Amino acid sequence: MLQHNLLEKTELRIEGINLKNANLNDIAKAVAYSLELDSTDVLVTDYQQNVLTVDLLQKHIDAHLIVGKKEPLLKNISAVDGVRLMPGASVESNGMLGWIALEEKDARAALLRSEKIAEEIRKKISKRAIVFSTGPEVASGQVKDTNTPMIAERLGKEGYRVTCGPTLKDDSVLIAARLHQAAESEGYGLIITTGGVGAEGKDHTIEAVIALDPDAAAPYICKFEKGTGRHVKDGVKIAVGRVSGARIVSLPGPNDEVSISLDVLAKALNNNLPKNILAEELANRLREKLRGRRKHIKS
Protein backbone atom coordinates (compact mmCIF):
# COMPACT_ATOMS: atom_id res chain seq x y z
CA MET A 1 0.00 0.00 0.00
CA LEU A 2 1.08 3.56 -0.67
CA GLN A 3 2.45 5.28 2.42
CA HIS A 4 1.27 8.88 2.78
CA ASN A 5 3.38 11.56 4.41
CA LEU A 6 1.45 13.24 7.22
CA LEU A 7 3.45 16.45 6.58
CA GLU A 8 3.82 17.10 10.30
CA LYS A 9 0.00 17.18 10.69
CA THR A 10 -0.02 14.34 13.23
CA GLU A 11 -2.57 15.68 15.73
CA LEU A 12 -5.98 14.10 16.06
CA ARG A 13 -8.71 15.74 18.17
CA ILE A 14 -11.68 13.97 19.71
CA GLU A 15 -14.24 16.70 20.40
CA GLY A 16 -17.16 16.22 22.77
CA ILE A 17 -15.52 13.84 25.22
CA ASN A 18 -15.81 13.85 29.00
CA LEU A 19 -13.18 12.19 31.20
CA LYS A 20 -13.52 11.16 34.82
CA ASN A 21 -10.59 9.29 36.36
CA ALA A 22 -9.76 7.87 32.92
CA ASN A 23 -6.44 6.22 32.10
CA LEU A 24 -4.84 8.15 29.22
CA ASN A 25 -2.70 5.17 28.28
CA ASP A 26 -5.85 3.08 27.79
CA ILE A 27 -7.30 5.79 25.56
CA ALA A 28 -4.11 5.85 23.49
CA LYS A 29 -4.30 2.07 23.13
CA ALA A 30 -7.92 2.33 21.97
CA VAL A 31 -6.93 4.86 19.30
CA ALA A 32 -4.01 2.70 18.19
CA TYR A 33 -6.22 -0.40 17.98
CA SER A 34 -8.80 1.47 15.90
CA LEU A 35 -6.15 2.62 13.38
CA GLU A 36 -4.19 -0.67 13.41
CA LEU A 37 -1.12 1.03 14.84
CA ASP A 38 1.28 -0.04 17.53
CA SER A 39 0.27 1.31 20.94
CA THR A 40 3.66 3.05 21.22
CA ASP A 41 2.81 5.12 18.12
CA VAL A 42 -0.03 7.01 19.84
CA LEU A 43 0.34 9.55 22.64
CA VAL A 44 -2.35 11.59 24.42
CA THR A 45 -0.96 15.12 24.57
CA ASP A 46 -3.78 17.30 25.90
CA TYR A 47 -7.29 17.39 27.36
CA GLN A 48 -9.26 20.54 28.04
CA GLN A 49 -12.79 21.84 27.50
CA ASN A 50 -14.05 18.40 26.40
CA VAL A 51 -11.44 18.11 23.65
CA LEU A 52 -8.88 15.30 23.79
CA THR A 53 -5.77 15.64 21.60
CA VAL A 54 -3.66 12.67 20.57
CA ASP A 55 -0.48 12.67 18.53
CA LEU A 56 0.59 9.95 16.11
CA LEU A 57 4.32 9.37 16.44
CA GLN A 58 4.73 8.56 12.75
CA LYS A 59 5.57 10.59 9.69
CA HIS A 60 3.95 8.20 7.23
CA ILE A 61 0.78 6.13 7.38
CA ASP A 62 -1.18 3.79 5.11
CA ALA A 63 -4.28 5.82 4.35
CA HIS A 64 -6.34 2.65 3.91
CA LEU A 65 -6.02 2.12 7.67
CA ILE A 66 -7.70 5.39 8.58
CA VAL A 67 -10.42 6.17 6.03
CA GLY A 68 -13.92 5.88 7.48
CA LYS A 69 -12.67 4.91 10.95
CA LYS A 70 -14.62 7.58 12.82
CA GLU A 71 -17.35 5.35 14.23
CA PRO A 72 -15.07 2.43 15.25
CA LEU A 73 -12.66 4.93 16.82
CA LEU A 74 -15.35 6.63 18.89
CA LYS A 75 -16.83 3.27 19.88
CA ASN A 76 -13.48 1.93 21.11
CA ILE A 77 -12.69 5.11 23.02
CA SER A 78 -16.12 5.14 24.69
CA ALA A 79 -15.48 1.61 25.94
CA VAL A 80 -12.55 2.82 28.09
CA ASP A 81 -13.37 3.20 31.79
CA GLY A 82 -13.95 6.83 32.76
CA VAL A 83 -14.75 8.00 29.22
CA ARG A 84 -18.15 9.38 28.20
CA LEU A 85 -18.87 10.71 24.74
CA MET A 86 -21.27 13.62 24.47
CA PRO A 87 -23.98 13.81 21.76
CA GLY A 88 -22.40 14.90 18.48
CA ALA A 89 -18.88 13.80 19.46
CA SER A 90 -16.54 14.06 16.46
CA VAL A 91 -13.02 13.36 15.24
CA GLU A 92 -11.12 16.28 13.72
CA SER A 93 -7.70 16.92 12.17
CA ASN A 94 -6.08 19.70 10.15
CA GLY A 95 -4.23 17.24 7.96
CA MET A 96 -4.64 13.94 6.18
CA LEU A 97 -5.88 12.34 9.39
CA GLY A 98 -9.14 14.14 8.71
CA TRP A 99 -9.87 11.25 6.32
CA ILE A 100 -10.93 9.32 9.42
CA ALA A 101 -14.19 11.27 9.53
CA LEU A 102 -15.05 10.86 5.83
CA GLU A 103 -17.64 8.44 4.51
CA GLU A 104 -15.74 5.23 3.82
CA LYS A 105 -17.09 4.62 0.30
CA ASP A 106 -16.33 8.14 -0.92
CA ALA A 107 -12.98 8.25 0.88
CA ARG A 108 -11.76 4.98 -0.61
CA ALA A 109 -12.75 6.10 -4.12
CA ALA A 110 -10.80 9.33 -3.63
CA LEU A 111 -7.87 7.38 -2.21
CA LEU A 112 -7.74 5.08 -5.23
CA ARG A 113 -7.75 8.09 -7.53
CA SER A 114 -4.88 9.68 -5.61
CA GLU A 115 -2.88 6.44 -5.71
CA LYS A 116 -3.29 6.20 -9.47
CA ILE A 117 -2.04 9.76 -9.84
CA ALA A 118 0.87 9.02 -7.48
CA GLU A 119 1.79 5.93 -9.49
CA GLU A 120 1.77 7.90 -12.73
CA ILE A 121 4.04 10.50 -11.14
CA ARG A 122 6.35 7.78 -9.82
CA LYS A 123 6.67 6.23 -13.29
CA LYS A 124 7.48 9.60 -14.84
CA ILE A 125 10.08 10.34 -12.16
CA SER A 126 11.68 6.92 -12.63
CA LYS A 127 12.34 7.85 -16.27
CA ARG A 128 13.91 11.23 -15.46
CA ALA A 129 17.71 11.04 -15.35
CA ILE A 130 20.54 13.49 -14.72
CA VAL A 131 24.22 12.92 -15.44
CA PHE A 132 27.08 14.59 -13.57
CA SER A 133 30.76 14.51 -14.45
CA THR A 134 33.50 15.27 -11.92
CA GLY A 135 37.05 16.55 -12.06
CA PRO A 136 38.86 19.88 -12.34
CA GLU A 137 40.16 19.02 -15.81
CA VAL A 138 36.61 18.78 -17.15
CA ALA A 139 35.38 21.78 -15.16
CA SER A 140 38.19 23.97 -16.48
CA GLY A 141 37.66 22.90 -20.08
CA GLN A 142 41.08 21.24 -20.36
CA VAL A 143 39.42 17.89 -21.02
CA LYS A 144 36.25 17.52 -23.08
CA ASP A 145 33.35 15.79 -21.33
CA THR A 146 32.58 12.94 -23.74
CA ASN A 147 30.83 10.82 -21.11
CA THR A 148 27.73 12.90 -20.45
CA PRO A 149 26.51 13.14 -24.08
CA MET A 150 27.21 9.44 -24.64
CA ILE A 151 25.25 8.42 -21.54
CA ALA A 152 22.44 10.83 -22.42
CA GLU A 153 22.15 9.40 -25.92
CA ARG A 154 22.01 5.80 -24.67
CA LEU A 155 19.52 6.48 -21.89
CA GLY A 156 17.39 8.42 -24.36
CA LYS A 157 17.10 5.26 -26.45
CA GLU A 158 15.88 3.48 -23.32
CA GLY A 159 13.05 5.96 -22.86
CA TYR A 160 14.67 8.32 -20.33
CA ARG A 161 14.42 12.09 -20.35
CA VAL A 162 18.00 13.07 -19.62
CA THR A 163 19.42 16.29 -18.22
CA CYS A 164 23.13 17.01 -18.54
CA GLY A 165 24.14 18.31 -15.13
CA PRO A 166 27.15 20.49 -14.29
CA THR A 167 30.61 19.19 -13.50
CA LEU A 168 30.89 18.59 -9.77
CA LYS A 169 33.81 19.74 -7.64
CA ASP A 170 35.97 17.07 -6.02
CA ASP A 171 34.47 17.43 -2.57
CA SER A 172 32.45 14.63 -0.95
CA VAL A 173 30.16 16.99 0.98
CA LEU A 174 29.37 19.12 -2.06
CA ILE A 175 28.85 16.06 -4.27
CA ALA A 176 26.54 14.46 -1.71
CA ALA A 177 24.55 17.67 -1.36
CA ARG A 178 24.09 18.01 -5.13
CA LEU A 179 23.03 14.38 -5.56
CA HIS A 180 20.57 14.70 -2.69
CA GLN A 181 19.14 17.86 -4.25
CA ALA A 182 18.66 16.09 -7.58
CA ALA A 183 16.75 13.27 -5.90
CA GLU A 184 14.80 15.13 -3.23
CA SER A 185 14.02 18.52 -4.76
CA GLU A 186 14.39 18.11 -8.51
CA GLY A 187 12.55 14.84 -8.98
CA TYR A 188 15.11 12.67 -10.78
CA GLY A 189 14.68 8.91 -10.51
CA LEU A 190 18.13 8.08 -11.89
CA ILE A 191 21.36 9.92 -11.10
CA ILE A 192 24.61 8.97 -12.81
CA THR A 193 28.07 10.29 -12.06
CA THR A 194 31.31 9.69 -13.93
CA GLY A 195 34.76 10.06 -12.43
CA GLY A 196 36.02 10.54 -8.90
CA VAL A 197 36.00 6.83 -8.08
CA GLY A 198 39.77 6.30 -8.02
CA ALA A 199 42.29 5.77 -5.24
CA GLU A 200 43.82 9.24 -5.19
CA GLY A 201 43.14 11.92 -2.62
CA LYS A 202 41.16 13.97 -5.11
CA ASP A 203 38.60 11.20 -5.68
CA HIS A 204 35.52 11.61 -3.48
CA THR A 205 32.46 10.34 -5.38
CA ILE A 206 32.21 6.95 -3.68
CA GLU A 207 32.41 8.57 -0.26
CA ALA A 208 29.61 10.95 -1.25
CA VAL A 209 27.31 8.11 -2.32
CA ILE A 210 27.97 6.15 0.86
CA ALA A 211 27.26 9.27 2.93
CA LEU A 212 23.82 9.41 1.32
CA ASP A 213 23.25 5.65 1.43
CA PRO A 214 25.35 3.80 4.02
CA ASP A 215 24.11 0.53 2.50
CA ALA A 216 25.22 1.43 -1.02
CA ALA A 217 26.90 -1.36 -2.99
CA ALA A 218 30.50 -0.32 -3.71
CA PRO A 219 32.54 -3.21 -5.16
CA TYR A 220 36.21 -2.88 -6.12
CA ILE A 221 37.29 -2.72 -9.74
CA CYS A 222 40.92 -3.14 -8.77
CA LYS A 223 42.99 -2.95 -5.60
CA PHE A 224 46.28 -1.27 -4.72
CA GLU A 225 48.63 -1.24 -1.81
CA LYS A 226 47.56 1.79 0.12
CA GLY A 227 50.19 4.55 0.14
CA THR A 228 51.96 3.53 -3.07
CA GLY A 229 52.46 6.38 -5.51
CA ARG A 230 49.49 8.72 -5.36
CA HIS A 231 47.18 6.02 -3.99
CA VAL A 232 45.86 7.14 -0.64
CA LYS A 233 43.07 4.54 -0.85
CA ASP A 234 43.33 0.81 -1.39
CA GLY A 235 41.56 0.59 -4.73
CA VAL A 236 39.13 1.81 -7.35
CA LYS A 237 35.44 1.25 -6.77
CA ILE A 238 32.12 1.97 -8.37
CA ALA A 239 28.91 2.52 -6.41
CA VAL A 240 25.19 1.98 -6.70
CA GLY A 241 22.93 3.45 -4.04
CA ARG A 242 19.53 4.95 -3.39
CA VAL A 243 18.39 8.22 -1.86
CA SER A 244 14.80 9.48 -1.59
CA GLY A 245 13.69 6.78 -4.02
CA ALA A 246 16.24 7.71 -6.69
CA ARG A 247 18.90 5.31 -7.92
CA ILE A 248 22.50 6.59 -7.96
CA VAL A 249 25.10 4.96 -10.20
CA SER A 250 28.73 6.12 -9.98
CA LEU A 251 30.89 5.05 -12.92
CA PRO A 252 34.60 5.58 -13.61
CA GLY A 253 35.86 8.55 -15.60
CA PRO A 254 37.63 7.01 -18.64
CA ASN A 255 35.34 7.14 -21.65
CA ASP A 256 36.03 3.58 -22.77
CA GLU A 257 35.07 2.26 -19.31
CA VAL A 258 31.83 4.23 -19.34
CA SER A 259 31.10 2.98 -22.85
CA ILE A 260 31.35 -0.70 -21.96
CA SER A 261 29.22 -0.14 -18.87
CA LEU A 262 26.19 1.18 -20.72
CA ASP A 263 24.84 -2.13 -22.05
CA VAL A 264 25.04 -3.65 -18.59
CA LEU A 265 23.46 -0.57 -17.04
CA ALA A 266 20.60 -0.41 -19.54
CA LYS A 267 19.76 -4.09 -19.11
CA ALA A 268 19.88 -3.86 -15.33
CA LEU A 269 17.67 -0.77 -15.25
CA ASN A 270 15.09 -2.36 -17.54
CA ASN A 271 14.99 -5.40 -15.23
CA ASN A 272 14.97 -3.21 -12.10
CA LEU A 273 17.84 -5.17 -10.56
CA PRO A 274 18.69 -4.58 -6.88
CA LYS A 275 21.62 -2.24 -6.27
CA ASN A 276 24.01 -4.98 -5.13
CA ILE A 277 23.42 -7.08 -8.25
CA LEU A 278 23.65 -4.07 -10.58
CA ALA A 279 26.88 -2.94 -8.90
CA GLU A 280 28.47 -6.38 -9.16
CA GLU A 281 27.51 -6.81 -12.83
CA LEU A 282 29.02 -3.42 -13.65
CA ALA A 283 32.14 -4.25 -11.63
CA ASN A 284 32.56 -7.61 -13.40
CA ARG A 285 32.38 -5.96 -16.80
CA LEU A 286 34.95 -3.35 -15.80
CA ARG A 287 37.25 -5.99 -14.29
CA GLU A 288 37.16 -7.88 -17.59
CA LYS A 289 38.17 -4.71 -19.37
CA LEU A 290 41.02 -4.11 -16.95
CA ARG A 291 42.30 -7.69 -17.26
CA GLY A 292 42.27 -7.41 -21.04
CA ARG A 293 44.19 -4.13 -20.85
CA ARG A 294 46.85 -5.64 -18.59
CA LYS A 295 47.20 -8.70 -20.82
CA HIS A 296 47.69 -6.45 -23.84
CA ILE A 297 50.41 -4.47 -22.06
CA LYS A 298 52.30 -7.64 -21.05
CA SER A 299 52.21 -9.04 -24.56
List keywords for this structure.
single chain; 299 residues; alpha/beta; Alpha-Beta Plaits; Molybdenum Cofactor Biosythetic Enzyme, Chain A; 2 domains; five-stranded mixed beta sheet; four-stranded antiparallel beta sheet; 13 strands; 24% strand
Write the layout of secondary structure elements.
Blueprint: E1 3-5, E2 11-19, H1 24-34, E3 42-48, E4 51-56, E5 60-62, H2 70-78, E6 83-92, H3 104-126, E7 128-133, H4 136-139, H5 147-157, E8 161-164, H6 172-184, E9 190-194, H7 205-212, E10 220-223, E11 235-237, E12 239-243, E13 246-251, H8 255-270, H9 275-298
Parallel strand pairs: 7-8, 7-9, 9-13
Antiparallel strand pairs: 1-5, 2-4, 2-6, 3-4, 10-11, 12-13
Task: Describe the 3D structure.
The chain has 299 residues and is of the alpha/beta class. The protein has 2 domains: 9-109, Alpha-Beta Plaits, CATH 3.30.70; 123-298, MoaB/Mog-like domain (Molybdenum Cofactor Biosythetic Enzyme, Chain A, 3-Layer(aba) Sandwich), CATH 3.40.980. It is 40% helix and 24% strand. The protein has helices spanning 24-34, 70-78, 104-126, 136-139, 147-157, 172-184, 205-212, 255-270, 275-298, and strands at residues 3-5, 11-19, 42-48, 51-56, 60-62, 83-92, 128-133, 161-164, 190-194, 220-223, 235-237, 239-243, 246-251. The protein has a 5-stranded mixed beta sheet, with helices on both faces. It has a 4-stranded antiparallel beta sheet with strand order 3-4-2-6, with helices on one face. Strand 3 (42-48) and strand 4 form a beta hairpin. The longest helix has 24 residues, at 275-298.
